Amino acid sequence: MSKTTLLFDLMTYVKIKRHFTAEDVANEFNISTRTAYRYLTELSEMGVPIYSEHGRHGGYRILDNSLLPPISFNENEAFAIFFAFQSLRYYTSLPFDLDIQSVSRKLYTSLSTETQHHIEQLDSVLSFWNPKRALSSPFIKEIIQASIEKHSLDMTYQSKKQDSHREVNPIGLYAYDGFWYMLAYDSHYNELRVFRLDRILSLEDTGKKFTPVTTLKNWLGDRATSNTEEDLHLNVDLNREGIRQCVSQPWLEANITLIHEDSAHIDMQIAKEEVAFVANYFLLLGTNAKVKEPVEVVDYIRLELEQTLRHYS
After folding, report:
1. Is residue 71 within 8 Å of 8, Cβ to Cβ?
2. Structural domain boundaries in the chain
3. Looking at the chain, which runs of residues are DSSP E strands?
4. Class of domain 227-311 as given by CATH
5. Which one of 8, 73, 110, 226 has the lowest number of neighbouring Cβ atoms within 10 Å?
6. Where are the beta strands (DSSP E) in 32-81?
7. At CA 193, angle to CA 191 and CA 198, rounded to 5?
8. Over the stretch 196-211, which tens digit does the pLDDT of each residue have?
9. Phi, psi at residue 2, to the nearest 5°?
10. Would you state the pLDDT for residue 202?
11. How many angstroms separate the CA atoms of 193 and 208, rounded?
């Protein structure tokens, strides 16, 4: 690694770490402590706001809320960043008050004329599209902060039949299909549950610490690869239109087995807490899908249809 590349990587490292020692830098970049001291001095001379702290727990710290010198990107890196921003344009709510247009303009103006021209050409033919949701998702920053600090939250949530008040331990947030979701441990039901942020009516940090039962990364991975004894077996027959609808759903696509072009079969496991979500999805497909099991999903669909029929009788 060249010295220039190492200095740029070190600039990114100190921005993320905020507080560190020369030994931390030496271990991270596989250099001597003496070289780490020299490079940190050079960064400071370049304008990076680093200052040293003396004492037993001393080291280096980067000033909060300070601007770092600009970082150069090659063309491929600029393309990756510019178009990654596009995937966020369709979210009404974003953490940290991120202004996508402002950040994109700053990146764009820092590029060479040739790279700007290439981005303009790609921008006209390439987009990362998500449904544009009008509903705002409040409390994004508050949930992120509580997840990091491991603080329980008092929450009022808009449920199907009535608003409910509960205490939850937030694990993290993820975005999907234009919505934001919070994974949290619900202390009332003693289980992990997923909550849509646009349905949270109020939220307050209790200040009480908790120990996470899992991580967001592990939970997302487990959903895709593992089954438990409490999972339910989903068995669904699809016609041609049912196939067309289901292949566009990431949670179903990998579990569709084609019999021939006009029929297919879904065979997969779902968690008990997903019964309502799964039933409502296949209910919307009408006669293009027939759920054969589990009985919990079938009964849910039948009940919804009976209530709808009575509503219009």
Report:
1. yes
2. 3-62, 78-123, 140-220, 227-311
3. 19-20, 50-53, 59-62, 151-158, 163-176, 179-186, 191-196, 200-209, 232-239, 256-260, 263-270, 289-293
4. alpha beta
5. 226
6. 50-53, 59-62
7. 155
8. 999 999 999 999 999 9
9. -70, 160
10. 94
11. 19
Asked, as a colleague might, if the bond just before 294 is cis with ω within 30 of 0, I would say yes
238: β partners: 264, 289
Return the structure tokens found at 170.
Answer: 């937030």
CA distance 3 to 64: 26
CATH topology classification for 140-220:
SH3 type barrels. (2.30.30)
The secondary structure element, H or E, covering residue 211 is none
Which tens digit of pLDDT belongs to each residue from 69-103? 555 667 777 777 777 776 676 666 776 555 666 67
Q: Which residues pair with 142 in a beta bridge?
A: none
The token pair at 169 is 């331990």
Q: How many residues does the chain have?
A: 313
Structure tokens at 178: 């234009």
- Measured CA to CA, the distance from residue 233 to residue 292 in angstroms comes to 10
Runs of H (alpha helix) within 49-182: 75-86, 100-109, 113-123, 140-149
257: CB partners within 8 A, 6+ apart = 264, 265, 266, 267
Q: Are 145 and 199 in contact (CB under 8 A)?
A: no
- CATH class of the structural domain 3-62: mainly alpha
Residue written as token pair 């709510």: 93
Decide: 202 and 164 in contact? Cβ < 8 Å: no
> pTM for this one?
0.56
